[in-house]
Specification:
Layout: E1 2-3, H1 11-16, H2 20-34, E2 41-43, E3 49-55, E4 60-66, E5 73-78, E6 85-89, E7 96-98, E8 107-112, E9 117-123, E10 140-143, E11 148-154, E12 159-164, H3 176-179, E13 183-193, E14 199-201, E15 209-214, E16 217-222, E17 228-230, E18 238-247, H4 251-255, H5 261-267, E19 283-286
Antiparallel strand pairs: 1-3, 2-5, 3-4, 4-9, 5-8, 6-7, 6-9, 10-19, 11-12, 11-13, 13-18, 14-17, 14-19, 15-16, 15-18
Length: about 290
């Protein structure tokens, strides 16, 4: 596998760039002077989207990532490839699927959610069927209301149970068992479904790791980006039991251990408590 590298003497000039516009102009000038062809041409590039390009004898490999924690991004990209077709490789599942294009396989529309990455590989194999464009427009949305049964399994093996009519940030709670919590939180609720919803959006999860169960079946886990899960085929008509397993960081719990010097050392940089727990709103979606 090979990779293209910048000339080593450009680093000091690179460090002087302070804005995206300046960096983009500097890069264009550098490419013209060095006569290096662009790896990819991005219309309206964003400072929050990073990209690298590698290649093998028969494949061009592109990796894109949106480093913004809260904002999605979309852009048009033109790739200097001929007689190759775009495939998405999912490193988490190992699944390889064709990427949608209209007429030219080297000109793509790319959308990335917050903290989402895309491993895009151009290969000789042409997809057997035309790939439909992914529909990202929400046709219907329903807010989940009701009383949640919330079970906290703290890291010291202490268990708490709370009833919550609304989801809140544990760090702002007046209940010390919540504001100092660290460990796993299990949220349970029974909902009545009378529509054909395709996804569930957990809303603000305060950067915790979530794992979703619908009627006892594991749907998946999200440990970065948006906590949106596909639920087609899992959600049935009538009553459904939802269960969300949430793993928090230990900062608030460690800060509460006043007589533990090691905990104090590791958490002294936190001036405030860390936002913890599922804050929502939780919504059922239909695309």
């Amino acid at each position: 596998m090979a990779t293209r590298r910048w000339p080593s003497n450009t680093w000091m000039s690179f460090r002087k760039t302070v804005t995206l516009d300046v960096l983009f102009s500097w890069t264009q000038d550098l490419l013209k002077q060095s006569k290096i062809a662009s790896d990819v041409v991005i219309r309206s590039p964003s400072e929050k989207v990073y990209q690298i390009h590698q290649y093998t004898q028969d494949k061009d490999i592109y990796f894109f990532t949106n480093i913004h924690r809260f904002e999605a991004t979309s852009f048009e990209a033109k790739f200097p490839v001929e007689n190759k077709y775009p495939w998405v490789w999912n490193p988490e599942t190992g699944v390889r699927t064709p990427f949608h294009y209209t007429t030219n396989a080297g000109e793509l529309s790319i959308s990335l959610d917050p903290l989402q990455s895309l491993l895009l590989i151009f290969e000789d194999e042409k997809p057997k069927e035309k790939i439909a464009e992914v529909n990202t427009k929400i046709k219907e949305s329903k807010l989940l209301n009701g009383t949640w049964t919330v079970i906290g399994r703290r890291v010291d093996n202490t268990t708490f149970t709370w009833k919550m009519d609304s989801l809140t940030d544990f760090s702002k709670s007046t209940d010390s068992t919540q504001s100092t919590f660290g460990g796993e939180i299990i949220y349970k609720i029974t909902i009545n479904n009378d529509d054909d919803f395709t996804h569930i959006d957990l809303g603000d999860v305060n950067e915790g790791i979530t794992e979703l169960y619908v009627n006892g079946k594991n749907i998946g886990k999200r440990w970065y980006g948006k906590a949106v899960y596909p639920i087609s085929g899992y959600l049935t008509k009538g009553e459904n039991n939802l269960e969300i397993h949430y793993t928090s960081v230990l900062a608030n719990y460690c800060k509460s251990l006043k007589n533990n010097p090691m905990s104090h050392q590791w958490t002294k940089r936190y001036n405030d408590k860390v936002s913890t727990g599922l804050e929502g709103p939780v919504r059922l979606l239909r695309y």
